[in-house]
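pipeline stage [seq->struct] | target=Aldehyde dehydrogenase (NADP(+)) | organism=Streptomyces albiaxialis | residues=509
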Amino acid sequence: MWSVDPRTGKQREQVTTEAGAEDVDRAVRGAHAALPALADRTARAVLLRACAAQLEARREEIVATADAESALGAARLGGELTRTTGQLLAFADEVEDGAFLGVIIDHADASLAPPRPDLRRYRIPLGVVAVYAASNFPLAFSVPGGDTASALAAGCPVVVKAHPDHPATSELCASALRAAAVETGLPEDVLSVVHGFDAGVELVRHPLVAAAGFTGSVRGGRALYDAAAARPHPIPFHGELGSLNPVVVTASAAEERAEEIGEGLAGSMTLGTGQFCVKPGLVLAPQGEAGDRLLGALAERVRAFEPGPLLDGRMREAFLSGVTERAGLDGVDAPVQAGPGAEGPDDRTVGAGVLTVPARHLTGDGPHERLLEECFGPVTVVARYADEAEVSAVLARLPGNLTATVQLGEAEAAGKDGTGAELLAALTPLAGRVLVNGWPTGVAVAPAQHHGGPYPATTSTSTSVGATAMERWLRPVAYQSTPEPLLPPELRDDNPLGLPRRVDGRREG
């Protein structure tokens, strides 16, 4: 596996070799053997904090290496590393709190019909988790990222299939996390990393892998999802696959702040050279003078965008061909043409662009359906609508998304008419996160966050960001009429671990 500089396309160094079936088996069996060592919640919290400290201690080297492999810039990657260590620390707090265990105790009650036996329920770790790293977040959604942090917090050892775009960064981060394990007295095999396409396939099929988390393309994710389901013993596959992230701009919002919306949209859709999974890729904007002002402000800001490299050559080619295909459709205009950056055979950059189309073209079957698919990179489609009926017709054709946004006028946002509530009701079935008068790029790591959505945004109803991401790697188990001495400490009446719980319908702790 070679580390490649996306700015030049040249190989930097050979980092490692692709893992074979024996290598994957060794990594998974090592992780499985480490499972009992993660049973103690205190040890897990200590591990997560040590992981954050190890990453911080190597910050300069990690950021420099990640930038050399991704071209995302030191400032962006420094922030991403801070987010990554913050996730680890947040999960350590969740582990110590213990609410994630979901302890419920219902004592026996013979007076009920039917009589209730003594029942006690909590959650336990699934086992070894396979994590498939993302290309566009070499830290926060990669080896030390949210999937890894949440799985370790849940008590599950992890085997990461590294992304080929950043093998050196992956090895560097893995070394930090494994050092943290040794430092805290845990087996270093609580986390392992494998490389290569075949390794990814072998990993999801391994009989000791109990669940998988994936961030990537629809095609790759769906293939792994199908493989997980086809196993003799199918496993949960939590995949984040693709998202258009629609935006609806009402006529009132455009009248009141067209320029502000246009500028905000430009900043969001070009952030990170358009390589965010929550990039707004389709915008429904009104026809008429206010919509024209919005489009003008958007176009002006996008023209000023400095061309930048994408994560690898394959993504660049897919972006360029995708834009060309979409721009060639009947009725599609390109007020700002996305395409190759500066002239020259060695140029690796792309420029940002805007495509426009009458919204009516998106309301029926035909080639314009291509505009309702994600195009990964710095481009967005602005569909100009004539009335609310066209907005409804377009929304009815959209697949599932991570986010959906509505830009409302002042009176609409204040609930002085039914427009705001109606649009929220229309957008809620389409996405896992609904925004009002904001932009979807920037996913806060918070307990209430939900980063997921209906298929193809994700393959499950879970989130990959925030405290509840741990739920993906746990399963509930109930004990019935079990003598107190035989119960796990978490379920005993005297609550020796001091856990928050619900007892006979009442919250405690």
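stage status: PASS
auto-comment: The chain has a mean pLDDT of 96. The chain has two domains: 19-241+461-473, 246-436.
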